[in-house]
Amino acid sequence: MKLGEIIKNYRTENDISMREFAKMADMSNAYVSMLEKGVDGRGKKIVPSIETINKVARACNMTFDALFNQLDGDFPVRVNSQSNLTDNEALFIEAYRKADAQTQEMIKRLLAYNNLLNGNQPDQEKLP
Questions:
Q1: Residues 39 and 95 both lie in one domain
Q2: Are 55 and 79 in contact (CB under 8 A)?
């Protein structure tokens, strides 16, 4: 079974909205939607981290092992999760990495400008 199927089945059986499940799992609504579909907004297959699987397990009132054992044998899992990042931050980083050079440059400038607005002095060597 795929992780998205497990989430969807749990939500359906317990009459829980996606938004409610997202709160229970400490994830964004958008990320739960992607997990259920198995793909991101660009159609790329989602490869959840062990931390994400653990969050889903807790939200489904299951142990990690119980949920993990329900997953298909060929279900990909990201082991090297950046656990200090929120799901939205991880999605942002993934989108940044996929962006073309011009878009990445605009994002860098926007972040530098935001730092200036907030009174933070950016490292001049890192400014674009």
A1: no
A2: no
